[in-house]
Amino acid sequence: MKNISIILLAWFTFVQTGQDVYTCKNVKVNIFSSAPIEDIEANSTNGVSVYNPGTGELDFTVPIRSFHFPKALMEEHFNENYMESDKYPKASFKGKVQEHPDLTKDGSYPVTVTGDFEAHGIKQTRTINGNLKVANGVLTMTSEFMVKCADHHIDIPQIVFHNIAESIRIRVNATYTVYKNSPSK
Amino acid sequence: MKRSIILLALMTLCVGLKAQTDTTKKAPGKTSSADSLMNSLSPDDKHQDVLPAFKATRLILSQTTTTVKKNNFNFLVIHRFGDMAGKAGGAQTLFGLDAVKDVYIGFEYGLSDNFNIDFGRSTIGQLVELGLKYAVLHQTSDNSSPVAITLFGQAGVRPYGPANAYNSFGDRLSYLGQVIISRKFSSAFSLQVLPTVVQDNTPYPADPGNEESFFALQTSARLKVTKRMSIIVDYSHSFSTFRTDRQFADPLGFGIEMETGGHVFTVNISNANAISAINTLSNTQSDFGRGQYRLGFTISRMFDFNKKTKHAY
Fold first, then answer.
1. Please, which residues have CB within 8 angstroms of residue B56's CB and are 6 or more apart in sequence?
2. Which ipTM did the prediction report?
């Protein structure tokens, strides 16, 4: 009987675990706008990401208020006039990694992720290229892509047209750790 | 045999259970396991400061809870023209534009995000003021702090004027202390009240019976009409028997506030001749009813002296 319970327990754990889920609680996001008058740049280190290699699911969320600009007024305008962060507090990406990289082997794997990118309350289906690096079991995901302000109904008034680019470059960098399932769930 | 059957049954049950959770996971709907995991990981964004209740550090008559951020320098030019109507107004003076009642030139500098030093000079009384402004409390999105509170203290000196009017340097001094309490009810609507104490060593106007100090209350509101334009209203009342007896008027102003990048412009109509609160609260005798209202404007230009930081990574 004792044996049975041990086997049972082992079986449970085996079934429950399946494949590891990876999470990152400090995704770095950099946004950069290059325009004739000035270059504007902001950084956030408060993004959250979940990657499930089993299903290929890859999600990102970044609070808009976590972006910090070198100039206070830029940050205020970014939140109040452009991103309207009180109405749309987060930008997110929900997608699937098309490839199935072998995470047990160290290396650099180019990946293609298809899914919904949401910013300023507008969803756009996007296919974004990135890179997945595995080194000593540590996963790092990086990506660089462009977002058109007009695609997300972010209006740039004529008066500041030369200060803000039509397309914003976004860089993402996330280092993942294996998510430990808490028993409370 | 019996045991192994039980074991087998249990194992199938386990697999069955797992399969069940799997199907619920894949079921159409918004919540997947990744979603709930995402939610549990996301930082709680409920407890954070709301964006400032007011765009600028001052409206028409009053200060706001908003402070100039660290290493930012705000340059202000405020103007009040002459009476639009009444005896002194009308087409002859181009509705008061020929007359200049008061001009204020001022600077505000952010020693930190919450602590400002203000300096300014008015035409009326040649009043030179030095003020300190400190944001004590910020309104938070979860209402753990439902209001923002900023303290404002100011000392003014009238360096000119007839020598016989002032016995000593101390007589030239005046003070203003305020607790500014604001609440941003929505992204469009903000309201504030400012309990105020005014102390003037030589009461202004210099008439017999005038109190050296009195209590006053200012209140102002902003309604955002578009992303960059608001309607603002500003009202003050001085609790002073001297002023009530002589039927002084309560300063009232309303106007439009426009924001373009680093500038904030205000165009307003008010019955107050003066700009500085010490002056407006002490001596507003012009009345809307007698056509003694005027055009005024505020130009505020923000300069940022923070060094541009290079990329974080």
1. B64, B66, B257, B264, B266, B298, B300
2. 0.76
